[in-house]
DNA sequence: TTGTACGCGTTATCAA
DNA sequence: TTGATAACGCGTACAA
């Protein structure tokens, strides 16, 4: 114990926890001892004795690794600043016992808070379990706001609207759309944004130009091939994420289409692949790291019962080489 | 407590920990109660009372997100099977107080074991700290074996040798090589493998064809541009990982080079990008997920003091569309 | 095969 | 402002 090295007994606790009621003199003495012995309060003892576990749970079931990885960077950064740790779990959103899995998880570890990523954030079973365990959570990019629940998101509707409007502004009239995974709220919002932009420009929504994808590269490939096999193919394709857009790029190679001369391709997320494929993707940047940081901050501040908060961050249209005016 | 619901008191502990000395009858009774009350032993109480924390730490400082992400999938899978949890921390390998950071981390959390990824696995400060805290650890793809330390790896030397030999077999004689980050042991092993294959084929090692990269896309881009600007440019380029190989693909676009007709490109890892770029990359598959699983298994088995183990997994040459015989 | 007492390192409560 | 003491929920050692 540092108390021996210092002067007092478990006033150490007060110092470590930055409580008041400590004289500057003893505080200093304790801090020195802490440094000298490189003392660190044991996480388990803390967790056991108090409510505070200093553990943030990141729960995900996401086909896109890059999305989850980017999220983690933000979570880790904030955790480090605040002396928290991140524990990550992958769950199957479709599992019938998702609820009990989540419940086990949080009661087992008495997590300080949980970050729910899509599509988990829209699973009633998960949310119920969290509420039951009285564990604070914040949802990332959920389908719709929920009473008594915090979330952080971008305006997916507007983002997709902006992208579509940009393509229309380029002169495109036949714009294909590859939808995202139907379980993800953001996917639907993006499709609605696309529709709204078409409508606003007086362009018809053409059924055969809207095909279902699932955010995965493979699904993007299939969707892309279907769109490019059309008798009247689109002059531009807007995919709901970058992985699928990259797949469209690959598919267009098979059809011997020059990008962007014969086909414009746009993605969403501005993930790593967007900058790695050739031509680089025009896309919509989602500030994933910042979203993660905001989520952690909300969880930590939540010590006081402030009620649910919502935080909406800005997206950004990133124009690169995969889009251009149609040639015809 | 489930004991009330069941019959006995803390025989629950025995059942939960799968100890012997429990009659089938009581075991069943307890299990039912456990299910009924959805009881979960508290991680903190366990960690405090025993040595076992059921927490595996994954420590990384890796420029490549995809590598870390792939690793996590494997770790998570094994953890789930064994009832462990994964806590991940990102560290700065260059930080002067890396040692104390690692030390804090493990003493704070009494981690059951730690997985050290490159380049952390070759940092004496980190290893010392772990030894000091008497925390078991296994190193992924370290530079060289260490006394008293477990590791899991592939044979990077042979893998690079195989790839180089494949390119030579195709007829290439001027094969550029983009090195990986010098802090990563695997990077050096790969370069040596490349050299050995050249030597074995009686081909000279041409200085200007070997350029330094750092595993990042950007560094691959710069290295690629340098190689392609050469008066006598190589007919093939072998990059130490896929991110850099993808960058070479992009760079070759600027030079108006057709892949693979005018330039063959090979990568390493078989990461997501390898299949997403066009043409898809010929690469060397590293079973990252399996390596991670093996690492966790070693950590968990290590309950008994078996001494250090080494595990070497197989690599696999994956030939795709980015390589072909030279045209000249 | 099962139960009892004790302690793990910290925080919380209440006195001093 | 500080210090004693009792939890926190479990595992371990030993007794029954």
Written description of the protein model:
Two copies of one chain form a homodimer. Chain A is α/β, with parallel strands linked by helices and 328 residues long. Helix content of chain A is 44%, strand content 15%. Chain A has 13 helices and twelve strands. Chain A has helices spanning 2-5, 11-16, 24-36, 43-49, 65-82, 98-109, 124-132, 156-170, 185-200, 217-228, 242-254, 272-276, 288-301; strands at 55-60, 85-90, 113-116, 137-140, 150-154, 175-178, 210-211, 236-239, 264-266, 283-285, 310-313, 316-318. Chain A has a six-stranded parallel beta sheet with strand order 2-1-3-4-5-11, with helices on one face. Chain A has a four-stranded parallel beta sheet with strand order 7-6-8-9. A two-stranded antiparallel sheet of chain A has the order 10-12. In chain A, β8 (236-239), α11 (242-254) and β9 form a beta-alpha-beta unit. In chain A, α8 runs parallel beside α9. The N and C termini of chain A lie far apart (78 Å). The model of chain A has no long low-confidence stretch (mean pLDDT 90). The interface between A and B is large, with 48 and 48 residues. β2 (85-90) of chain A pairs antiparallel with β2 of chain B. The structure holds a DNA duplex (16 and 16 nucleotides).
Q: Largest interface, with Cβ-Cβ < 8 Å?
A: A-B, 48 and 48 residues
Mean pLDDT of chain A: 90
Which residues of chain A form runs of ≥5 with pLDDT under 50?
none
Give the structural class of chain A.
alpha/beta
Oligomer: homodimer
How would the global form of chain A be characterised? elongated
How many E-type strands of chain A? 12
Radius of gyration of chain A: 24 Å
Order of helices and strands of chain A: HHHHEHEHEHEEHEHEHEHEHEHEE
């Amino acid at each position: 114990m540092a108390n021996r090295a210092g002067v007092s007994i478990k006033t150490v606790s007060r110092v470590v926890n930055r409580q008041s009621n400590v004289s500057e003199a003893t505080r200093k003495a304790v801090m020195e001892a802490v440094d000298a012995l490189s003392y660190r309060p044991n996480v388990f003892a803390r967790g056991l004795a108090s409510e505070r576990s200093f553990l943030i749970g990141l729960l995900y079931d996401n086909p896109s690794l890059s999305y989850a990885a980017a999220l983690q960077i933000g979570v880790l950064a904030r955790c480090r600043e605040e002396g928290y740790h991140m524990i990550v779990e992958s769950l199957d959103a479709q599992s019938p016992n998702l609820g009990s899995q989540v419940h086990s998880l949080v009661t087992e570890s008495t997590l300080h808070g949980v970050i729910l990523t899509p599509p988990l954030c829209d699973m009633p079973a998960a949310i119920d379990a969290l509420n039951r365990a009285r564990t604070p959570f914040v949802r990332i990019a959920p389908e719709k706001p929920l009473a008594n629940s915090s979330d952080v998101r971008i305006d997916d509707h507007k983002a997709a609207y902006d992208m579509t409007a940009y393509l229309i502004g380029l002169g495109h009239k036949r714009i294909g759309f590859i939808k995202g995974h139907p379980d993800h709220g953001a996917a639907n919002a993006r499709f609605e944004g696309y529709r709204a932009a078409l409508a606003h420009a007086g362009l018809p929504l053409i059924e055969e130009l809207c095909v279902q994808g699932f955010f995965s590269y493979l699904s993007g490939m299939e969707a892309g091939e279907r769109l490019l096999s059309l008798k009247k193919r689109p002059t531009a394709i807007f995919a709901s994420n970058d992985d699928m857009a990259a797949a469209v790029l690959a598919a267009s190679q098979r059809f011997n289409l020059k990008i962007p001369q014969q086909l414009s391709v746009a993605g969403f997320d501005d993930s790593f692949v967007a900058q790695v494929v050739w031509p680089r993707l025009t896309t919509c940047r989602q500030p994933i790291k910042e979203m993660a940081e905001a989520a952690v901050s909300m969880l930590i501040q939540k010590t006081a019962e402030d009620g649910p908060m919502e935080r909406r961050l800005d997206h950004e249209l990133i124009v690169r080489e995969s889009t251009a005016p149609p040639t015809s």
